[in-house]
């Protein structure tokens, strides 16, 4: 029997009516002869609501208990969805992450999948049941329920597909992957294909349509992903090896990350150990530092700037407080009115002049940037939040990321 994994995100199953529509699609897939594994997220914004409840109890909820709490969202989805299938006389069974054999390791709220024992899933598939698995969750070696980080149902789905060696379909509230988030750039082009590398980079740089780790798993195990709308039958986007794409544009896509904080430290004594200790302490506090720049302000002092995820603000403040205790002359400027705009394209590896063109576009549009970083296939700029729309428009026009006939 050919297996297939179909994953539906929160907005696709936000009400029972939505679930009923999704059930039709799933049943149709089974009729086509597939052994169907359905992976579900929590309904609508349930996960956020559960996190809000925890915050009403305490400012710093225990991570283990938070995992216990937020994993329930997906369990509501799988039980209700399976009831809908059964009400239509379709054989189906719901499985929690641990019942589906998902074994995890790492820190609570951000676990990684170690392995999946798919024997329970395949047993039910071979009994011609539709298997409905709770995304986003697993169980660690201690037998604790764990979650895989926000957006982690994508990871569950792709990991199951990797283990079953089958295709994975991701159904969501957009009808494919666009050159830029269609909610912030309405005329963005839809892509028929995107390479694993480009999708991974776009996701890491803020395109929340796919969780970045899920693409890493798909790439490693050569699992073809199809991203499409759960509401319409519009043709979606394949995420696959780059070779399927005949003609490559210089820039395939643009990502924006709003959840950025930029920290500038002024009047830092020009001693290597101060800066080294700062980044060491940030790392020890699990702050993922992204961009860094250091420039001399005088012979004896330097200015240091770095960006990190806004979610890490509490840890960053703790580290900076300690830094100030030992170096009271340092001036700290925190700027959370910044965004990171990145362009991504595999062709950048072989083409020169992309950065030059970007600098020109930004300067012609009077868009001042604060920090820049590059990878082999991307260039990222931190700019003021106020300039976000203007920058997206200018870059999209310059690199042909919009539809021409709209
Ligand atoms: P789900 O609940 O199905 O997991 P998400 O909200 O996680 O859905 O992801 C879908 C959202 O991703 C879309 O609503 C869209 O705004 C956003 N998005 C960001 N970048 C892109 C892009 N390049 N192409 C398509 N959607 C994107
Ligand atoms: N429900 C989880 C979240 O909101 C997982 C997911 O949606 O993929 O992050
Ligand atoms: Mg998602």
Overview of this protein structure:
The protein is of the alpha/beta class and 406 residues long. The protein folds into 2 domains: 2-173, Carbamate kinase (3-Layer(aba) Sandwich); 254-398, VC0802-like, CATH 3.30.2130. The chain contains 11 helices and 18 strands. It has helices at 16-31, 46-57, 63-87, 119-126, 153-164, 196-204, 212-221, 272-284, 313-326, 354-364, 388-398, and strands spanning 3-8, 35-40, 92-95, 102-105, 112-116, 130-134, 137-140, 145-147, 167-172, 193-195, 225-229, 237-240, 253-269, 289-296, 301-309, 331-344, 369-375, 378-384. Helix 8 packs antiparallel against helix 9. The chain is globular.
Secondary-structure blueprint of this entry?
Blueprint: E1 3-8, H1 16-31, E2 35-40, H2 46-57, H3 63-87, E3 92-95, E4 102-105, E5 112-116, H4 119-126, E6 130-134, E7 137-140, E8 145-147, H5 153-164, E9 167-172, E10 193-195, H6 196-204, H7 212-221, E11 225-229, E12 237-240, E13 253-269, H8 272-284, E14 289-296, E15 301-309, H9 313-326, E16 331-344, H10 354-364, E17 369-375, E18 378-384, H11 388-398
Parallel strand pairs: 1-2, 1-9, 2-6, 3-6, 4-7, 9-11, 10-12
Antiparallel strand pairs: 4-5, 7-8, 11-12, 13-15, 13-16, 14-15, 16-18, 17-18
Helix pairs in contact: 1-3, 2-3, 5-7, 6-7, 8-9, 10-11
Bound molecules: adenosine-5'-diphosphate, aspartic acid and magnesium ion.
Adenosine-5'-diphosphate is lined by residues 9-12, 41, 151, 172-174, 177-178, 180-183, 207-209, 253.
